[in-house]
Write a structure and sequence with these properties.
The chain is of the alpha/beta class. It has a domain at 9-145: P-loop containing nucleotide triphosphate hydrolases (Rossmann fold), CATH 3.40.50. The chain contains five helices and twelve strands. The chain has helices at residues 21-34, 71-78, 99-109, 131-137, 193-200; strands at 9-15, 39-44, 54-56, 62-64, 66-68, 87-90, 113-119, 140-143, 146-147, 154-155, 157-160, 176-179. The strands form four sheets. The chain has a six-stranded parallel sheet, sandwiched between helices. Strand 3 (54-56) and strand 4 (62-64) form a beta hairpin. The longest helix is centred in the first third of the chain and has 14 residues, at 21-34. The protein is elongated and about 50 Å long. Bound molecules: adenosine-5'-diphosphate (ADP), magnesium ion and zinc ion. Adenosine-5'-diphosphate binds at residues 15, 17-23, 57-59, 146-147, 149, 178.
Length: 205
């Protein structure tokens, strides 16, 4: 069933790794399928051979998905069938380029519901493009937290474990864990000047 007369909708699900973004995306997409909407899903190609045809969560939920290299490939796969598609799901959107934002807005102009999941920040704690721009244009933003692996508090950060500083390191078991604001160490043990200032203010124990 096509919804071309509706204004379309952008829903962005964000937060750190392990916060349940993929689970929530899959839950929403499966509900759309139950409602007999035509759902098409995409994920970036991260050279993970085991996930090549699906979106997968750490909790083992999956939904079939096209694996695409970039926004151009996503558009190429989608446009020939766009008339029949009601709902579009995109996982790990932080690995797409900035042109994804324009494409998503174009899709809403065609009456589509677009569900996007992606990391809000990098392992350095910086905004992870193009997610901030997607948050700005979204109809609905869902910010999820994980559980801090050191203290159990709500975790808003993704901690890189080990020495590599490459922005894109995926599929490496144990390379990341969720951390709360206090336990997060973006620069591997070195104190950030900002943290030291906060210590002086008695904010950090
Ligand atoms: P995301 O897509 O945000 O990385 P997923 O949806 O793939 O998250 O996985 C969420 C699941 O990960 C949780 O339901 C839980 O089973 C598992 N998990 C593993 N480590 C953590 C953690 N530190 N905090 C919360 N959930 C965790
Ligand atoms: Mg995920
Ligand atoms: Zn903590």
């Amino acid at each position: 069933m096509s919804q071309d007369s509706s204004p379309g909708r952008i829903e962005v699900i964000t937060g750190p790794m392990f916060s349940g973004k993929s689970e929530e995306l899959i839950r929403r997409l499966k509900r759309a399928q139950i409602a007999r909407r035509c759902v098409l899903c995409f994920r970036p190609d991260l050279n993970l051979s085991s996930y090549r045809t699906s979106i997968a969560s750490h909790g083992a939920q999956t939904i079939n998905a096209y694996v695409v290299a970039n926004t151009g490939e996503l558009k190429e796969a989608l446009l020939p069938v766009i008339q029949d598609v009601d709902v579009i799901g995109i996982d790990d959107a932080q690995f797409f380029d900035a042109s994804l934002v324009r494409l998503v807005i174009e899709l809403t102009h065609m009456g589509k519901r677009v569900l996007i999941s992606g990391l809000d920040t990098t392992f350095a704690g910086e905004p992870f493009p193009p997610i901030p721009d997607l948050l700005a244009v979204a109809d609905e933003v869902v910010k999820l937290s994980a559980v801090c692996m050191l203290c159990g508090a709500p975790a808003v950060h993704t901690q890189r474990l080990g020495p590599s500083q490459s922005l894109v390191l995926v599929g490496t078991e144990g390379a990341y864990e969720a951390r709360c604001r206090l336990c997060f160490q973006p620069y591997h043990g070195e104190h950030e000047p900002e943290q030291l200032e906060m210590q002086g203010l008695g904010v950090r124990s």
